[in-house]
Amino acid sequence: xxxxxxxxxxxxxxxxxxxxxxxxxxxxxxxxxxxxxxxxxxxxxxxxxxxxxxxxxxxxxxxxxxxxxxxxxxxxxxxxxxxxxxxxxxxxxxxxxxxxxxxxxxxxxxxxxxxxxxxxxxxxxxxxxxxxxxxxxxxxxxxxxxxxxxxxxxxxxxxxxxxxxxxxxxxxxxxxxxxxxxxxxxxxxxxxxxxxxxxxxxxxxxxxxxxxxxxxxxxxxxxxxxxxxxxxxxxxxxxxxxxxxxxxxxxxxxxxxxxxxxxxxxxxxxxxxxxxxxxxxxxxxxxxxxxxxxxxxxxxxxxxxxxxxxx
Length: 311
Hints:
The protein contains 13 helices and 14 strands. By secondary structure, the chain is α/β, with parallel strands linked by helices. It folds into 2 domains: 4-169, Rossmann fold; 184-304, Rossmann fold (3-Layer(aba) Sandwich).
């Protein structure tokens, strides 16, 4: 995992590649193209790219119209604004009518670190996960980002794609198998399972390596699809390791941790801990914020030890 690539850059390039082979793809942007990198697509296909200005609600409403006409709209803005300012049309137009719209929320989690709590998205997963018909995907590295963009275009129906601003180590090879609704067993283990989503996956891998050096065998799962969650894999992990820690750059309420807990309590109750935000964060260096708010390697490893004691 030596190479690091910004997720937003990988997304922009992937969208451009997709546009070159699928003329039904259109891009919509809320005046933050240089941030979301949808402008890469826009420069290549200006006739299929629409910057509506700082009007997220109207942008999502327009996407409904494009979908009605058989196009595949990729809608772009910051995750925090996508899921707050556009909440009404996402629910009442896109999801209710099961339209083929791809909602791409960038700058997720704490990745817009220096802009502070107003721009950091820690509640978006809770919103989109609760809406019927809406599939929810969040990606870990540049390779998975490209795979998810192409998979989203093939997927019929509304989909929320959660994207980070930050660069992240490239873990996956180009031949990785990405399937919506199927998590990936990154590392086998027998003492505890770390189920992670998004770019913090590499923190989970680092924590597993630290634990291994201490004689603790930790499995690591990349649960890139939050909804529908891979129930079979969650149950398998619960049965085989007997303890689960979830890791997400999101509130502990309503996101990955909640989704995993629902599966565990209904099918195979085991001790479980959730790592995520418990309140608003602050402005600062991204890596320093991750450590401060519990996403660092050592904090994850400590949480794994805690849950193992409860077995």
